[in-house]
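Limitations

Structures in this collection are predictions, not experimental determinations, and the ligand pose is part of the prediction. Treat each record accordingly. The example that follows, with alpha-D-ribofuranose as the small molecule, is included so readers can see exactly what is and is not provided: the inputs are given verbatim, and the output is the predicted complex.
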Amino acid sequence: RSDFVTHRIIIDCDPGQDDAVALFLAFASPELDVLGITTVGGNVPLELTHRNARMMCDIAGSDVPVHAGCDKPMRQPLRTAEYIHGETGINGIDVFDPVTPLQAQHGVDFIIETLLAADDDSIILVPTGPLTNIGTAIDSEPAILAKIERIVLMGGAMREGGNRTPSAEFNILVDPEAADIVFRCGRPITQMGLDVTHQVLSTKERVDRIRALGNPVADATAGMIGFFERYDMSKYAAPGAPLHDPCTVAWLIRPELFTGKDCNIAIETQSELTLGHTAVDFWHVTDRPRNVHWVYQVDSDGFYDLLTERLATYGDAA
Ligand code: RIB
Ligand code: CA
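Predicted complex:
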């Protein structure tokens, strides 16, 4: 395994069916050494997001340690999204008490300790929920910044507009103060906003291919997508739902599937009307630093080929 590893990562997430699929993809990618999973309040409250992350470790047979991080945003009240993800956060599969334990160490402390012990530019953070844990870690221990090779996050939007308010995407809206800290931190950022995630739609043909794999992880993936997709399919009258969070992991293992450009992106933290908006300076009309690699295009067939190919490996002889 060590021959293949190209990235050492920490995944910070709020499972969430699409977060769960991102975990499955990461666990099945020899290019990635997942050092740990930290969870955050987001789609559903923290006690459910860490339970759900531990369930995914059980289903996938992963021994990656799971830590619970912050249960609410730095300043804002917690907004959740049970109307999309269901009461459990992972509706579409039966919930069970996971064997995978919850680590005693707080997720933010795990991020800080792991980074401080690492070499410069050596660990990639992969947040797929509200940025509370990452913003809090940077705010309380700026010395970790030098250790962060890159932050590859799901959140924000440009042409797609908001999905929780007319101008804000959920992950950024939930904790705009934390997002502002992250976007100003000076470390390289790759951002998967709705403009790209809305291209990877879970059409029937794609989900049928996954279901046909016939292993427990593929079954759980198809089951979760089957519930998760119904909200966005009716809202957007689309043939499938956007599989947001796995785009981060897919970019790490097959970046050639994606197209993006470096530009300035700033976070609205003051206005009530546009709180959490990501102002994408796509045409460089300001002289603000080009702090983000903004991804706006993906080969969605190639994305689903990759996902299906990696999910198939869970059926190989254990
Ligand atoms: O807006 C989409 C994002 O919000 C995804 O990360 C989904 O899991 C939810 O957290
Ligand atoms: Ca998420």
